[in-house]
Structure to design on (349 residues):
């Protein structure tokens, strides 16, 4: 039997020694500080609240971060491209920030959170890029709360600078070693080599490859459409590209084993959700370092194209980027004519 909604009522916070007004609105918990530890004054504030003369957004000191994160997830879960990632970030944030209030979000505390996540005291140690992304989720949640008038003022969330993008790419000998290693183990030879070849020849992201289905692969026209039908467009664009000749051979062989609606990357007839274990095995057997990750295939495809003199705007379109700015900043220095005009000008001078 559901609990009866007892309406706005007072609650004393022992840690802060302050009375708070709590109530439910549209099925959601709300809280507002009375800013006093005196019971009589708090009852007066409650009376004003009940009369409707002092309702509105909560002071950041009265809004718990756990409630803020819960509201954010509840209201956004259906609009997220990768909900699992955001939910994981919210869970980690909740471990540190949960019972704290929004006014406690300071640069010092954000740095302390990063040190905690980086130390491995929470599950496993993560990089600055990982815990920085988690703080970015907290920043988005705070802004969401403020826009929905649940906070009386916007509290800034310090987020560390983004690390330099990974630019590790593979040589042809390294790719050959990786493929040999992937084909050497029975449990991964059925799917990991094809995953590597698709990543290498298309430059698609890991998620796009693992979610790829045969209706998206038109072998007759020689085209792959990495866009999932009905999927909302995001900043991480997915390309529609012609199938390279060498990749076509492997796709035709794999197509004979697949179904019309099934995934392209499968193991024993089931879609592969992750290549983490198989990738780690093949990488180590090939003698490659931990900096070689599945996304390295995308960097390799882009790097090889740029090194062969493919115009940057074509590389951008192949990768699914809307502009060439990211390609220019990440791979521009690999172009055979990089700064060539500048060099010739100085030579003439």
């Amino acid at each position: 039997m559901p609990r009866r909604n007892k309406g706005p009522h007072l609650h004393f916070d022992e840690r802060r020694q302050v009375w708070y007004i709590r109530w439910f609105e549209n099925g959601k918990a709300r809280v507002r500080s009375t800013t006093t530890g005196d019971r009589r004054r708090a009852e007066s504030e409650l009376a004003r609240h009940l009369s409707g003369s002092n309702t509105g957004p909560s002071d950041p000191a009265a809004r718990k971060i756990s409630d803020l994160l819960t509201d954010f997830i509840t209201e956004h879960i259906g609009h997220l491209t990768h909900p699992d990632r955001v939910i994981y970030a919210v869970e980690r944030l909740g471990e540190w920030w949960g019972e704290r209030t929004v006014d406690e979000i300071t640069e010092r505390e954000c740095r302390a959170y990063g040190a905690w996540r980086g130390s491995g005291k929470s599950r496993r140690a993560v990089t600055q890029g990982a815990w920085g992304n988690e703080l970015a989720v907290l920043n988005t949640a705070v802004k969401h709360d403020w826009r929905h008038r649940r906070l009386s003022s916007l509290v800034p969330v310090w987020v560390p600078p983004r690390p330099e993008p990974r630019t590790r790419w593979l040589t042809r000998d390294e790719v050959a070693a990786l493929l040999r290693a992937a084909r050497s183990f029975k449990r991964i030879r059925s799917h990991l080599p094809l995953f590597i070849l698709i990543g290498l020849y298309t430059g698609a992201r890991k998620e796009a490859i693992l979610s790829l289905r045969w209706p998206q692969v038109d072998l007759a026209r020689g085209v792959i459409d990495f866009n999932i039908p009905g999927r909302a467009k995001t900043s991480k664009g997915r390309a529609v590209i012609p199938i390279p000749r060498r990749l076509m051979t492997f796709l035709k062989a794999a197509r004979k084993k697949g179904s019309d609606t099934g995934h392209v990357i499968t193991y024993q007839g089931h879609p592969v959700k992750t290549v983490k274990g198989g990738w780690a095995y093949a990488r180590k057997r090939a003698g490659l370092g931990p900096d070689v990750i599945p996304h390295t295939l995308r960097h390799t495809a882009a790097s090889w194209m740029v090194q062969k003199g493919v115009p940057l705007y074509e590389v951008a379109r192949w990768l699914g980027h809307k502009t060439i700015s990211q390609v220019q900043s990440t791979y521009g220095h690999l172009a055979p004519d990089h700064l060539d005009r500048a060099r010739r000008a100085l030579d003439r001078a």
